[in-house]
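pasting for ref
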Amino acid sequence: MTWSPDPNNRPDPDDASDLSAARSPIGPEWADALTRFVSDARTEERVTERRRRRWLQREATESSSFAGLLRTLAERATPVRLLTDGGGTHTGTPVAVGEDVVVLHTAGGRPILVALDHVTAVVDGTTAELDGDRGDPAPGPSLRHLLAELADIEAELTCTLAGGTVVAGRVVWVAEDVLALDPSDPPGRGTRRPFTDGRRYLRLSSLVDVSPRVSG
C-alpha cells in the first residue's frame, strides 16, 4: 500500500506564522538583537586589546631610565637633539651610551661627548614609542675612560664647562676627577676663554661636552 500526503494537511500560504517558523527559528527582533550583541562584543574586544597594548607599553616605558632611552635611540641610529643645562644644543646621531656619557656623531661627521648629568632633554623628531631598558646592560665606558683614550693619542679638545665657559687644549693626562690640557689654538668655538696660556686643569664633573680633534 502506497502512502501519499494528505492534500488537506498542507500549510496555508496565507498563514505568516507558519512561513516565519519554516524560514527561521527566531523572529526578526531576535535577529536584530543578536547582530547588535555580536557588534558590541567585537567592539569590546577591540577596546580590550587597545587597553592591553597601552598597558604593556606603559609598563615598558615606566621602567625606563634616561640612559636606557638613549640606548634605544642609539640602536635605532635615530638623529636627536640634546639640550644641556647650560643652554646648549647638540644635534647628531647617538652611537654609544656609556656610564655617564653619550657619544654623538654630528652632521659634520665629528664626534662629541656629552655628559649625561648635564643633559636635560632629548628630542628625537619622531612619535615612535621607545622601548624600556632591556634588562641590565653591560656597563659602558665612562667619560673619564674615553678622555684617557684621547690622551693616549694627544687629541685636541674643545670643552664646554658648566656655566658656558669654553676651554680648548691638548690632553696631557686624566686623573680621577681632573682633566689636564696644554694650550692650543682653539677651533673658533665659544667666546668666553678665561685662559690664554699655561696648563689648564678642569674638573671632570664640570664638563658639559667635549669635542675632540685628533692631531695629525
